[in-house]
Amino acid sequence: MAKSSKDLSISYLLDFYGEVLTPRQRDVMVQYYNDDFSLAEIAENFGITRQGVRDAVKRGEATLLALEEKVGFAARYRAMVGALERIESLARDIRFRNAESYSPSAAVGRDAEELIALCAGLSET
User: Fold this and answer.
1) Nearest to residue 50, comparing CAs of 60, 59, 62, 42?
2) With 6 labelled, which of 34, 60, 63, 76 sits at a CA distance of 20 to 30 A?
3) Closest by CA position to 106, among listed 115, 117, 95
4) How close are the terminal C-alpha atoms of the chain, in Å?
5) Tens-digit pLDDT profile for the chain (125 aa)?
6) Which letter, b or e, does each residue of 100-109 get, where b requires 16 or more Cβ atoms within 10 Å of its Cβ?
């Protein structure tokens, strides 16, 4: 499998569901997707054949994709992050418009600042 044909969404799923894989399978997947090792390099690292690595990667991909299809945590997380970014953008816009108005509202300014701070706090977790 050429490096350019790797499905990078699998790396994202590996971050969410990697713990459900066996430790060895997870290590193979991490080396393949996150560390960008070739099948031959991974085979040498684990003392198995290239085909063995390919099979482990395919089984790992199937497990991660099936789990995401059933529970959808990764998709929901992406949606939540997108919504959070949009909320922060809107709060910054409200803060700017309020500050630039002829009679800025202190309450609107405080609320916008609180929204921005909440977004920042959630982004860090």
Assistant:
1) 42
2) 76
3) 95
4) 35
5) 344 467 789 999 999 999 999 999 999 999 999 999 999 999 999 999 999 999 999 999 999 999 999 999 999 999 999 999 999 999 999 999 899 988 989 999 999 999 999 988 887 76
6) eeeeeeeeee
What angle is formed at CA 44 by the lines to CA 19 and CA 39, rounded to 5 degrees? 65
User: Helices 50-71 & 8-17, crossing angle to 10 degrees?
Assistant: 70
What letter would DSSP give residue 33?
Answer: I
Considering the entire predicted model, what is its pTM?
Answer: 0.72
Distances 125 to 61, 71, 85, 90, 102 between C-alpha atoms, Å:
27, 21, 14, 21, 37
Residues in the chain: 125
**CA–CA separation, 63 and 82 (whole Å):** 26
Residue 50 · residue 40 · CB < 8 Å: yes
